[in-house]
Design the sequence.
């Protein structure tokens, strides 16, 4: 399969749902346009977060037994319009998030049956404070810009894999 690389983080994406059948792949049609304009991708949260640590600023712990599996973040959720606590899934169990979460990224509201659901990426309250800083972003959580050679490869992949006039998307 042909691949197009994100111009912000260099993450590879299948070009079919981005160029040929926009919105039928891993991105919505609106997200595909954002991607083609060079605004980033879902992996880097549209150019906002380091893809190594997902914006947590912490190095992943490969042997962790924590609820976050060493990622130092949890995906939390709660019903929109309700005053209840944030919750997270831990295997087969739904657990209540302790205290106020340190939210890294708020996802768009999603539908769950007949209810709206707020979802967010939050620092793990159990292990994030003790974790080492991410070596890619030096603990900032910010996306590190691509070096020139990787940016050239990302732009070339867009030109090669698209049948449309890509000059619309090449303006910074």
Sequence:
């Amino acid at each position: 399969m042909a691949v197009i690389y994100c111009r912000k983080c260099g993450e590879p994406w299948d070009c079919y749902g981005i160029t040929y059948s926009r919105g039928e792949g891993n991105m919505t049609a609106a997200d595909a346009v954002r991607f083609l304009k060079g605004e980033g991708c879902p992996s880097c949260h549209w150019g906002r977060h380091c893809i190594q640590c997902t914006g947590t600023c912490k190095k992943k712990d490969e042997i962790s037994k924590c609820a976050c599996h060493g990622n130092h973040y949890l995906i939390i959720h709660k019903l929109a319009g309700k005053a209840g606590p944030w919750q997270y899934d831990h295997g087969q169990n739904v657990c209540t998030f302790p205290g106020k979460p340190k939210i890294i990224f708020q996802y768009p509201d999603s539908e769950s049956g007949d209810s709206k659901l707020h979802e967010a990426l939050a620092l793990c309250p159990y292990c994030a404070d003790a974790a080492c800083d991410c070596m890619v972003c030096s603990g900032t959580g910010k996306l590190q810009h691509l070096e020139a050679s990787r940016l050239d490869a990302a732009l070339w992949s867009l030109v090669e894999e698209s049948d449309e006039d890509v000059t619309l998307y090449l303006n910074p």
